[in-house]
Specification:
The complex is a heterotrimer of chains A (326), B (283) and C (371).
Chain A lengths: L16 H10 L11 H29 L2 E2 L7 E2 L3 H8 L1 H33 L5 H13 L2 H11 L6 H8 L16 H26 L3 H9 L4 H29 L3 H6 L11 H10 L7 H25 L8
Antiparallel strand pairs in A: 1-2
Helix pairs in contact in A: 2-13, 4-8, 4-10, 4-12, 5-8, 8-10, 10-13, 12-13
Chain B lengths: L6 H36 L3 H6 L11 H9 L2 H32 L5 H10 L6 H13 L6 H24 L4 H9 L4 H12 L1 H16 L3 H6 L8 H11 L4 H34 L2
Chain C lengths: L3 E8 L9 E8 L4 E5 L6 H9 L6 E6 L2 E2 L10 E4 L11 H11 L4 H15 L14 H14 L4 E5 L7 H18 L2 E6 L2 H7 L2 E6 L2 E6 L1 H6 L4 H6 L6 E10 L2 E5 L5 E3 L12 E6 L4 E3 L9 E11 L4 E6 L6 E6 L10 E6 L5 E4 L13
Parallel strand pairs in C: 3-8, 3-9, 6-7, 7-8
Antiparallel strand pairs in C: 1-2, 1-4, 4-5, 9-10, 11-12, 11-14, 12-13, 14-20, 15-19, 16-17, 16-19, 17-18
The chains are: A mainly alpha (326), B mainly alpha (283), C alpha+beta (371).
Chain lengths: 326, 283, 371
């Protein structure tokens, strides 16, 4: 709120629109420290907004734009309308990729969150070295996908990998397979590896959430004849619901965009059994015999709409309106 | 203590404790053994490994680390990663903190809109910007440059940075700012002298988080930089794996080299890191 | 309903030097309202939680209704507890909160409904049954917490400072409601508080605790009138009892208390219980002091300078600085007492209103000759 001018200095005529606007922009600093001039605001926001506009907003728009063209090289672009989208509907590889990604995104987040909660409960129950375990179990989260990928390629190795070696050592050699080479098992193998990397993150978040629960409510439930299962189902999960939902959405988004791990371990093979939408986009854009950036842009657009749509849907369906005040 | 009541009660308690310990031990092995295995292999020659894949090294071949570092260009990849990630983290922290401060502190029309716009892009799958970023970088001659990658990395981490810092900054008590105003501080001075020092814990957490995410970043690095001399570490390791295809011993050594900086940062900052990663997710 | 018995209960946390609860023994009779009173950190909540089964008992025996309870799980003890923070389940409606414990015990639906209706009627929860805790005020939440305990129809009710989160006016109302509830249900209740007003008005017996130990057990007025030591004497009563250090001087076979500064107070009723030169602490309650008339002698008169005057409307508190190391005395005087800061004043002490405590241990030295 600007200070009222002393009567002697007040202009005889109220300032015109432009003058008033300029005054507001370049007025002396506000007394209310929650308001400031536009130039100051711009100074703070401009760098981030420029980067955002140039490197996120513009590229998104441009990808939408691309999807209507065939872009055979950097210079030329031929308008093809919705042809790419029509082709997409017929593209068997695309649908295989969608199927794989959908399976991954549907199954894995549930397992991730459940595992995270289970591990967190173990630590919450009070075990020796809980702090060390928390730190140790979190480590795979920090490893690069390249490292994790190569590690697990070796673990899954047919001749000498850990999995087959263990099976053979207990006499179940007939169960040994080339896990990443068998179209029936490759996707599951990748899902396990991915879950291995992320379990620690879910555990840590669940543990923090558990510690934020009011202990008196849990004690009250104990007096109400709740064993650990009852406590879990009736008290802990409902009270942790917002956090669990967040974790689920995070895991879901992560699986919808998974690329690095697949690329390192199987590159989408064998026979497209591990092809995901991301790897397919990459291949069509940079690894295909015919160079065309329009088609993979169309795939990206479709996938973008699907992912954002799901996130909005999840929030609408499962976001409990009332605040769990405690 | 009076002697225990029913032996059955004691038995279930032991079973439960034992079951708990079993889960914990098994999971710890599951988590840690792959790492230990690779670590062991990194110190053995490929011949030794082929002979017996799971043995502990009896001779510690430390020179393999030197060979990997020198002969296989790891030093170059390390340097590239350090430059790119360091610059990107510095820039995104500065830009992000400025924006976060503005959004957290000042009331203006469109505040929540800007915040939502910046934050919602966390949900976008990377493919939606991958191809056009490729085009943009080529058109502006930033393809195959470290600068181009730095800018892209800044864009990638901006939403998360703004989200985390806005949350923290908005909890700084307004009194601090009112007092500063009375003392005659201007807006920028307030940001520089008050918000940044007071917000240091959150900023440190964001720096660590961004560092680790970008250090391991693969997709954009592989698309936007093809020149071998400019490769960042993850791409370098992958190329390394291609070069040394069957040389498991050397690959293991290379992997360990890539992992060590992360482990060191983690060893010092584990608490901060875990807090930071849980900050957004716990509601 | 049941009686609760604690025999030499100890609680020591691992890694601490002193026990949190040190040799506590008391019995709560069937249907009695027992208050555990003490400053924060004295171990009263810990004791309550051991009765509930939420803390393990390091040593000693706990029995409820004659059954040993040391190893019995909390849920099997047939007790209900009202927590300081109410501990309502935030994601359930009031009705669900009330029904939860009964459902977990497989009580049939019809019985659950009737108990909820009964409790709701007693506590006035009928319009609140479908609300969730966040939509309730503090007082309403407290009543729901009470309701949750009532529907269980337990043998013992435990209360852990349930009124401390309420504002002052509500506290007075709820205090009375709890007393009426106790009358109505005739239940055994153990109530923990740090507020001596609550203890005096609600308890049938109070157990004063300090530093993990029991200082005194008895009926409120008994404890008030015959405190066992200096701690109990000062803890009950507002303003607290005045305690002044003194020495005994025996003259003509009669003991006198000699205060620093020379004032003498007659301790005739203590006869030979006090020895010459003994160090003691003399106590007198503020309401037993009156302005000295000029005609009185020098004995039993405390002289000093007025250092504070607090006119409260119904009465006036006057703080007298005895000077010469005697400390300060607070007196509750008539509301029209003319006293001003800096005045010299004198307060009359009735000899029968004096208390004597040992100088070193603080334990009360009882009179030898009854008045």
């Amino acid at each position: 709120m600007t200070q009222p001018l002393p009567l002697a200095l007040a202009p005889a005529v109220p300032p015109s629109g432009l003058r008033r606007q300029l005054d507001r922009w370049f007025a002396p600093p506000e007394a209310d420290s929650r308001r400031t001039t536009w130039p100051a605001l711009m100074l703070f926001l401009a760098p981030a907004l420029i980067i955002y506009a140039a490197l996120t907003a513009y590229p998104v728009v441009r990808t939408f734009y691309n999807s209507f063209f065939t872009i055979a090289d950097i210079e030329s672009a031929k308008f093809v309308g919705l042809a790419h989208f029509a082709e997409l509907a017929r593209d068997k590889t695309f649908w295989a990729a969608v199927r794989n990604t959908a399976i991954w995104s549907a199954v894995a987040p549930l397992l991730d969150v459940a595992t995270g909660l289970l591990l967190a409960l173990c630590l919450y129950a009070g075990v020796p070295f809980a702090r060390f375990l928390r730190v140790a179990w979190f480590t795979p989260v920090l490893l690069s996908y390249v490292v994790v990928g190569i590690m697990w390629v070796w673990i899954y190795n047919y001749d000498w990998g850990v999995v087959n070696a263990m099976l053979r050592s207990v006499g179940l050699g007939s169960w040994a397979r080339s896990w990443l080479g068998d179209p029936n098992f490759a996707l599951a193998a990748l899902m396990i590896t991915h879950a291995w990397k992320w379990a620690g993150f879910n555990m840590v978040v669940c543990l923090a959430a558990l510690h934020s629960l009011p202990s008196e409510v849990l004690e009250a439930s104990e007096l109400d004849n709740c064993g650990w299962w009852d406590k879990l189902v009736h008290i802990i999960v409902p009270m942790l619901w917002p956090t669990l939902l967040n974790l689920y959405i995070l895991a879901f988004i992560g699986k919808m965009k998974v690329f690095d791990l697949v690329w390192i371990m199987t590159e989408g093979g064998p026979l497209w059994s591990t092809e995901t939408v991301s790897t397919y986009v990459y291949k069509r854009a940079f690894n295909w015999n015919t160079f065309d950036l329009g088609y993979p842009s169309a795939i990206a657009v479709v996938w973008f709409v699907v992912v954002v749509g799901f996130v909005v849907l999840f929030n609408l369906l499962f976001r409990r309106r009332e605040r769990l005040e405690y | 203590m009076t002697p225990s009541a029913l032996p059955a009660g004691l038995l279930t308690r032991w079973l439960r404790q034992g079951g708990l310990m079993a889960i914990i031990v098994l999971y710890t092995l599951y988590s840690a053994l792959p790492f230990v295995w690779v670590g062991a292999m990194s110190l053995r020659t490929t011949l030794e490994i082929s002979a017996s894949h799971f043995a502990w090294p009896d001779v510690y071949h430390w020179e393999k680390y030197r060979i990997a570092w020198v002969d296989s260009n790891f030093a170059q990849y390390f340097w590239n990663s350090t430059l790119v990630v360091g610059a990107a983290v510095a820039i995104v922290t500065l830009f992000g903190a400025a924006a976060a401060h503005c959004l957290a502190r000042y009331n203006f029309r469109g505040n929540r809109l800007v915040y939502f716009i910046l934050f919602s892009s966390i949900v976008f799958p990377p493919q939606i910007i991958l191809i056009s970023l490729f085009q943009v970088l080529v058109e502006y001659n930033l393809y195959n440059t470290r600068l181009g990658l730095v800018l892209v990395y800044v864009g990638l981490q901006l939403p998360l940075t703004v989200y985390l810092l806005e949350g923290f900054f908005s909890r700084i008590p307004q009194d601090l700012f009112d007092a500063a105003k009375i003392d005659g501080y201007g807006d920028f001075e307030i940001f520089w002298r008050i918000v940044l020092p007071v917000g240091m814990p959150a900023i440190a957490t964001t720096v660590i988080l961004n560092f680790i995410q970008l250090w391991n970043e693969f997709l954009f690095a592989v698309v936007l930089v093809s020149e071998p001399g400019l490769r960042t570490l993850p791409i370098g390791i992958r190329a390394y794996m291609g070069d040394y295809f069957q040389d498991i011993g050397m690959i293991a050594t290379g992997m360990m080299i890539a992992v060590i900086p992360v482990v060191i940062v983690y060893a010092f900052f584990s608490e901060k890191l875990i807090q930071g990663m849980t900050a957004g997710a716990v509601k | 309903m049941a009686h609760v018995q604690l025999d030499h209960i100890y609680k020591q946390y691992r890694g601490t030097a002193t026990p949190a609860v040190d040799d506590v023994s008391f019995t709560v009779q069937d249907g009695e309202f027992m208050v555990l009173l003490g400053p924060s950190g004295c171990g009263k909540s810990t004791t309550l939680r051991m009765v509930a089964g939420l803390e393990s008992i390091t040593a000693g025996a706990l029995s409820i209704d004659g059954r040993a309870m040391n190893e019995v799980a909390a849920k099997d003890r047939d007790i209900a507890m009202v927590f300081q923070s109410y501990a309502l389940y935030p994601h359930m409606t009031v009705a669900e909160n009330l029904a939860f414990g009964l459902k977990r015990r497989n009580v049939e639906a019809a019985l659950i409904q009737s108990r909820i209706a009964a409790a709701s009627g007693i506590l006035g929860l009928d319009e609140l049954l479908q609300r969730k805790p966040f939509a309730l005020s503090g007082g309403q939440r407290q009543r729901v917490a009470l309701g949750r305990a009532i529907v269980r129809e337990p043998k013992v009710f435990l209360f852990d400072e349930p009124l401390s989160n309420l504002d002052a006016a509500l506290r007075v109302n709820t205090r009375n409601e709890l007393v009426r509830l106790h009358h109505r249900l005739g239940a055994t209740m153990v109530y923990v508080t740090h507020d001596q007003v609550e203890a005096m008005t609600m308890g049938q017996r109070i157990c004063v605790m300090n530093k993990g130990r029991v200082a005194q057990i008895g009926k409120p007025l008994e404890v008030y009138r015959a405190p066992a030591d200096v701690f109990v004497a000062k803890f009950l009563g507002n303003p607290p009892m005045n305690i002044v250090g003194a020495r005994v001087a025996v003259q003509d076979a009669q003991p006198w208390a000699v205060l620093p500064g020379g004032t003498r107070l007659p301790l005739a009723h203590w006869g030979t219980a006090l020895a010459d030169g003994q160090a003691i602490q003399v106590g007198v309650r503020p309401e037993e002091l009156s302005m000295a008339s000029d005609a009185g002698g020098d004995d039993s008169v405390l002289k000093g300078v007025v250092s504070a005057v607090e006119p409260l409307g119904a009465e006036t508190l006057v703080v007298l600085d005895l000077q010469e190391g005697g400390g300060e005395i607070i007196a509750r005087l008539h509301r029209d007492t003319p006293a001003a800061l800096g005045d010299r004043a004198a307060l009359q002490v009735r000899p029968q209103a004096l208390y004597v405590f040992d100088g070193a241990t603080g334990k009360a030295i009882p009179v030898e000759i009854q008045a």
